[in-house]
Input
Amino acid sequence: MILQTPSQLKEESDNEESSEESSEEEDDEILDDIDDPAVGDAPDQIVQNPFYEGSDDDKSGSDDASELEDEDEQDSDSKVEEGPDDIDSDDSDFDSDDDSDDSDEGGDADDDKNDEADKGFNDEEDLIAALKSAREKKARDCPPDIKLKESATDISFHPEENIIAVSNLLGELSIFSCSNEENKALKKLKLHKGGIRSIEYSVDGKHILTAGKDKTVKVVDVETWNLMMKEPLSHPSPLYSLAPLSNGCVSGDEDGTVKFWDFRTKKNTLTSKRFDEFVSSIYADEEKKVVIATSGEGTIQSWDMRMNKPDIQSEVYDSELNCLSVVREGTKVVVGSGEGIMYIFNQGEYGYHSDQYPGHPDSINSMIGVTDNVVITGCEDGTLRAVHLFPHRFVGQVGHHGGDMPVEKIDVNADGDVIASVGHDNRVKFWNIGYLEKMDYEKKRKPIVQKSQVAKKRKLAEAVARETEHQLPSSGRVNKKEFFQGFKD
Output
């Protein structure tokens, strides 16, 4: 610590007092200036705006200032008009540079998202359009379904007109006129006490033949709707099938009895008991003087109409033979079995088949020839199939009955371009098959032959085979490759 002498301390105090006096004098001067009226009443000085380039004459008042603002706006407008190209070019260049620098990555990402959204939207629109077009009502090429209250048992087309006869389990016969627009009920008759098993139009279309469970055959005149004969034609057992002749018919019953009838004499001309079980179907060819029948015991039998006696009977097959049809101008007889096998017999050689065509997944219940080489089969699985015989090809599925109900009967109209079928779904369904005449059958696949294997595996293989069958235009179903073809495009 440094000690100061008394003289030094006195000098410091004198200096402090002098400095305080000088500061007080300065403050008094400042206060005097503020209170001086000469200074307080002085006019306000106008401070020039450093950002304004106007003249001194324009700075003198508020009115002049407003005029100045108007002049400034006019000057600015004139300046913009003088050089719009330069200003726009500068601004556009600047903006484009900023956009390119700031939003290159973001812009590309947004574009990709927009493209994906547009693509998804377009795909959705295409799908909706496809669904709408599928639901749109198209022009019909065959009559609509006939809905029945009772289960139908058989059908028969008129040989010349667009009329179809339908029988049911109550012994009733219904007549309908058919067109692509609508079907009209023309007549309904109660003919048999039990169900009607089989019906056929006569060769000339003037009569309808019915075979009933009440063991009788009846003939109805289509003009008067009266019975042709007062006394019905009787069998020892319930009727099962029949076939028309020019002046009569051939009928078969459940016990295997076959009878030939002459309507002119109203008598039975031949009775033949050649089967032990039901006569499932009958075919008659008056030109060749032959009648052929199939049976539930697994045999076929022919009759010679010239000699009026039985001719040839086949050996017994493993399952029942349910139906038959002829192709190749009557030189080949095709028979459908309960095992789904079609047997081919040569004309006049009915003892044993000449060829066999397997491939149906279930029993063949009904069959009809529609061209010289194509037959339509109705199966236990509710599917109608077109089969080409020479060469052997499964053409595809013609149609289906609801709920996979068995197809019982099939018939073809007079023009040969529409077939009708009945099953257990209480409907008569119609199918246009005109396209069969124009198909290339060489390109169709061969039938799938199921090898001997466990029953469970065999059923699975049959189900897979049904799924891969080709759908024909009349079936109303779409093939998988055709459905997804639109999405590929």
